Amino acid sequence: MQTKLKRRHLLAGIVGLAGSAALVKIAGSGTSFAEETTAAEAATPATGTLPIPDLLTATDEDGVSVFTLGTQSGTNTSLISGKSITTAGYNGTFLGPTIKVTDGETVRFDVTNNLDDETTVHWHGLHIAPSNDGGPQNTIAAGATWSPSTTINQGEACTLWYHPHGLGTTADQVALGLAGMMIVDDGSTANASLPNSYGADDIPIIMQSTAITSAAAFGITNASFTASGVTLKFLVNGVSATDETPTLSVAYGRVRLRLLNASLTDSITLALSDGATFTQVASDAALLPSPISISSLRISPGERAEIVLDLTSSDAAATLQATVRNTTNGTRYTVSMLSVSSTATTAADTLPTTLNTVTALDTTGATSRTFTLSNSGGTFLINGVAGTSMATMESNAVMTTLNAIEQWTITNSSTTIYHNFHLHDVPFQVVSVGGVAASGANTGWRDTIEVPPSTSVVIRMQFTDYADNEYMYMLHCHNVIHEDDGMMLALMVMSS
Ligand SMILES: [Cu+2]
């Protein structure tokens, strides 16, 4: 994307040194991906009780990085003593490894489905052709392998994730544990100036508000979270923070936490236990224009955010607390979700004041559309349509053309139910929320945004690079229970 190339030139002169990890990355900025990986491995790994998903190692096939994923089912007998809970994961029995890719890298994902049921794998937030996007058309039968390939073309450093996206089965399969993180490195100086040694000072945090039913299964309905005999557990990288707060100790003065709300339906608001401020550096789809200082951070389902904690001063020995709220914003509980400390004794250098440049899309003459989110009992609708069958998706598909710039108004007509809005293919810019111009974390690129009751959110986007007259992208609420109950439409980007 043209604007993003310009951004890199702009940032080329900024050198922010943020500890040894940054030194490693800056030293490696002109070197190959393999050399960077080797350098990153030299960093001192974090310790503590928090599990950190493995970084998935690609095999090189004639210049193509091949990442191999396999779904598999399993059981968990530790979450509730004496009960065996059915789970699923990628290359393991719960969650999946982290995939790290770099702009310009040609990749292939070989995904084998070892479940008894059909699945799909959607690369949430990745700018990729619709035929490789992993939506409901890209089903992988039990026992089959799907091998989408692409050249990473993101133009932004960001935290993405991958998860199933079958029609009507997303909540079922995500609840089992099918979710993993994807990290995109854009090679920018700004990204290099932030902690970026995976597992050392750059840590994935996958948060899941779960309900375990009296029958010892992960709940997949809204009602299951309040049903008789239910046990609510807040999982961080697969372990229960409800039972014991996981710990993370790093050898650096600063740590970057890549936060993902992989919950089915609940929003999560993070704060430090002492109320101190912390720094957000990225939202969903890109680094923010500048770091922002915040004292709480609300993340709706499917969203990501990146924060940086300074562990040698203000955030020393920080404990992150999560307040979990349901779809009508009722508080379920507050849990101490992570205790972070550092063995470093020297203060971290200051962060750069500029991380990214977002050039406003020119919407002069752009197509405007409106999308109204509503429900009729348990049926969830966009513009009155429940996208619960492929035929309905096809006949109601939003049609646009390659390179079109559009401005969309997303309105939540419910007076009580929170929704959010996720768009596949390209990130969007936020124009306004509830009539107020975008501010804070909404000044960067996003792919998911919360739409509170009785509120309109205005966004704009450009459908670059990928057109297809057969395969569809999806747009939907990322409360995946609502999504499965119909709050999803298809988008087709036509070549002309
Ligand atoms: Cu919703």
CATH class of the largest domain: Mainly Beta
Radius of gyration: 21 Å
Q: What is the tally of helical segments?
A: 7
Low-confidence stretches: 1-41
* Major sheet details: 7 strands, mixed
Helix content: under 10%
Distance between the termini: 19 Å
Please state roughly what percent of the residues sit in beta strands, choosing from under 5%, 5-15%, 15-25%, 25-35%, 35-45% or over 45%.
35-45%
Order of strands in the sheet with the most strands? 13-12-11-15-20-17-18
**How many distinct domains?**
3
Question: Would you mind describing this structure in some detail?
Answer:
By secondary structure, the chain is mostly beta strands. The chain has 3 domains: 2-188, Immunoglobulin-like, CATH 2.60.40; 202-342, Sandwich (Immunoglobulin-like); 367-494, Immunoglobulin-like, CATH 2.60.40. The chain is 10% helix and 39% strand. The chain is built from 7 helices and 33 strands. The chain has helices at residues 2-11, 20-27, 33-41, 170-176, 189-192, 390-395, 480-484, and strands at 59-61, 64-76, 85-90, 99-102, 106-113, 122-124, 145-146, 149-151, 158-163, 180-185, 202-212, 231-236, 239-240, 247-250, 254-261, 267-272, 278-282, 287-294, 297-299, 304-310, 318-325, 331-342, 367-376, 379-382, 398-401, 405-412, 419-423, 429-433, 436-437, 448-451, 455-462, 473-476, 488-494. A 7-stranded mixed beta sheet has the order 13-12-11-15-20-17-18, with no helix packed on it. Strands 1, 2, 3, 5, 7 and 8 form a 6-stranded mixed beta sheet that branches. The chain has a 6-stranded mixed beta sheet with strand order 24-23-26-31-28-29, with no helix packed on it. The longest helix has 10 residues, at 2-11. The chain binds copper (II) ion. Copper (II) ion binds at residues 419, 477, 479, 482, 487.
